[in-house]
């Protein structure tokens, strides 16, 4: 298994409120995290770094390899981190209202779980096909689901950045968690909306289909988002399950 990632401030923002990290526990399981912070002039970067660092370091101390057991652990850690972000935002005026999205992939053996809160996404690239495997927790996605907007109208929706779930905004934590098989030659992409608002799924798929090194693919995605305007911070993390016999 190989992992590469890149994060960039983009063309319009003064600081990078995205945060990314990869962690390994004591049994060799891997946790990859991407968070996109929001709020205050420095609150967003504090919230995203808190979420990734605290959950990642807690994972490094664990022994778990069974995916089902890890689900309970991750949900608990997300709840704990939500409380920590809420508490800190109430302690410091310049952090008031801070919060963060988070998308996580935990890989153990030939299976992985994906969890998300907000609109940072996970994609599975399998057999040269790109599939979004998280659902955006956003106002625009709710309007599309309810039939109030078409997919084309959603692209131009002025409140596209309004999210309906995040860490650190309310006492309730509601993460979506799903378990998948991780087959030979599969790739996973975790990213913030600074990528997906600038680069189409077809363009992402084309980059993942190339033979260039994994780090070059991550950098290419960042470059494409910046070339399209770079309106937000941009993060791309790619995990590749190397070849061999596909799972049964």
From TrEMBL:
NCBIfam families: Stp1_PP2C_phos
Molecular function terms, GO-annotated: metal ion binding; protein serine/threonine phosphatase activity
Catalytic activity: O-phospho-L-threonyl-[protein] + H2O = L-threonyl-[protein] + phosphate; O-phospho-L-seryl-[protein] + H2O = L-seryl-[protein] + phosphate
SMART domains, per database record: PP2C_SIG, PP2Cc
Protein's UniProt keywords contain Manganese: yes
Protein name: protein-serine/threonine phosphatase
SUPFAM superfamilies per UniProt: PP2C-like
Keywords: Hydrolase, Manganese, Metal-binding, Protein phosphatase
Enzyme Commission (EC) number: 3.1.3.16
Required cofactor names: Mn(2+)
Domain PPM-type phosphatase per the UniProt entry, residue ranges: 2-241
InterPro entries cross-referenced by the UniProt entry: PP2C (IPR015655), PPM-type-like_dom_sf (IPR036457), PPM-type_phosphatase-like_dom (IPR001932)
């Amino acid at each position: 298994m190989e992992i590469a990632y890149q994060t960039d401030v983009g063309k319009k923002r003064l600081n990078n409120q995205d945060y990314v990290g990869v962690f390994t526990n004591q049994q060799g399981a891997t946790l990859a995290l991407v968070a996109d912070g929001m709020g205050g002039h420095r609150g967003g970067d504090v919230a995203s770094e808190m979420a990734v660092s605290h959950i990642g370091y807690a994972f490094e101390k664990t022994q778990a390899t069974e995916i089902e057991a890890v689900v309970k652990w991750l949900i608990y850690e997300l709840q704990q981190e939500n409380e920590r972000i809420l508490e800190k935002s109430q302690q410091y005026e310049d952090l008031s209202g801070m919060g963060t999205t988070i998308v996580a992939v935990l890989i153990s053996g030939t299976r992985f779980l994906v969890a998300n809160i907000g609109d940072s996404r996970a994609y599975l690239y399998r057999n040269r096909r790109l599939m979004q495997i998280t659902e955006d927790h956003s106002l625009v996605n709710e309007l599309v689901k309810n039939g109030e907007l078409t997919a084309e109208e959603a692209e131009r929706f002025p409140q596209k950045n309004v999210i309906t779930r995040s860490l650190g905004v309310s006492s309730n934590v509601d993460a979506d968690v799903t378990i998948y098989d991780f087959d030979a030659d599969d790739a996973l992409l975790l990213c913030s909306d600074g990528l997906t608002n600038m680069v189409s799924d077809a363009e992402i798929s084309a980059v993942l289909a190339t033979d260039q090194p994994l780090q070059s693919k991550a950098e290419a995605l960042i470059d494409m988002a910046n070339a399209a305007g770079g309106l937000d911070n941009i993060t791309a993390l790619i995990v590749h399950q190397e070849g061999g016999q596909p799972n049964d």
